[in-house]
Design goal:
mainly alpha, 113 residues, 73% helix, 0% strand
């Protein structure tokens, strides 16, 4: 039969969970700020391969359009990159936690026999 937890046990468990959550937050925040941004704009796409006047007009239109949205798009790319990095870090942490829980479960005595 399962043993009942006392209030002291519950408080100790909650304190342990809070400490672990704070450590995970700190680790995640550090990992996210240390990662280079892999997503960026390609300004070389702002040129046209068409010869003559048409090509120059297309190139000018592309460059103007790119300049108008450059900062907005770069900011969006930075945010996406940070989110992806954070997801990767969180997945790694979850995998470590699952492995630790599996080890604890394997170490527990089997009372079903």
């Amino acid at each position: 039969m399962a043993e009942q937890m006392t209030d002291a046990d519950i408080q100790a468990l909650m304190q342990e969970i809070r400490a672990e959550a704070a450590a995970l937050r700190a680790e995640t925040a550090k990992a996210v700020t240390d990662v280079p941004v892999p997503v960026h704009l390609r300004p070389e796409m702002g040129y046209s391969s068409k010869p003559g006047l048409v090509g120059k007009a297309i190139t000018l239109a592309k460059r103007v359009s790119e300049k108008m949205v450059h900062h907005v798009v770069e900011d969006a790319f930075d945010r996406v990159s940070q989110r992806l990095t954070r997801i990767d870090v969180m997945m790694d942490q979850q995998e470590r936690r699952i492995a630790a829980l599996e080890q604890r479960l394997d170490a527990m005595p089997d009372d079903r026999a």
